[in-house]
């Protein structure tokens, strides 16, 4: 737990420091794109390096998204009486392909400022799901003991490394996403200050959320390996 807390703090501080640099530079250059800032600072070589780094970063994230789509689609198909979709390889592959083409691809064509409604819908869904889980745990009288049995499955450290690497990598994905928000803010230093304050608030709340999950898990499991 102490090592995990230190790592969380270092990630938050690194995000805060580097994101503030990017935002200030973008405001001075009067651009609103991550690649534009990198190109201004590192030229064509720096731009190519940044693009390669983004591909590596997003590969694991996109694989995780596709896995989540497949699992969610399989559960939804079972509820709809279409068990064969989730029970066969062809059915699961068709779920991934269909949802990717009809949902993810159209959304990827929008800019960040045009996704506000989608973000609100996602936030509302997370609130509803959280309330449902809490209510279910209270009603059962057993709290989260049932969930803890699943979380305490026998997995080796090596099997957990890909998930941990994806989590740490995703923690830095805020940097490419933040700069386009400058388009909706006042130009110059005024907009940069607003965005930096918003980013610091985001990093602080995210840090608290990570710590709450980690410490809550430690208390729930009571140190049982």
Mean pLDDT: 75
Task: Please state the overall shape, judged from the principal axes of the Cα atoms.
Answer: globular
> Which structural category fits the helices and strands?
mainly alpha
Rg of Cα set? 21 Å
| DSSP helix fraction | over 70%
Report the total helices.
9
The run of helices and strands is HHHHHHHHH
Question: Segments where pLDDT lies below 50 for 5+ residues?
Answer: 147-154
Number of strands: 0
Q: Sketch the major β-sheet.
A: none
**End-to-end distance:** 13 Å
* Beta-strand residue fraction: under 5%
Overview of this structure, please?
This protein has helices at 2-29, 34-79, 83-87, 89-108, 116-140, 145-151, 157-170, 174-178, 189-221. It has 225 residues and is an all-alpha fold. α2 (34-79) packs across α4.
Keywords:
225 residues, 0% strand, mainly alpha
Summarize the structure.
By secondary structure, this protein is mainly alpha-helical.
Write the layout of secondary structure elements.
Blueprint: H1 2-29, H2 34-79, H3 83-87, H4 89-108, H5 116-140, H6 145-151, H7 157-170, H8 174-178, H9 189-221
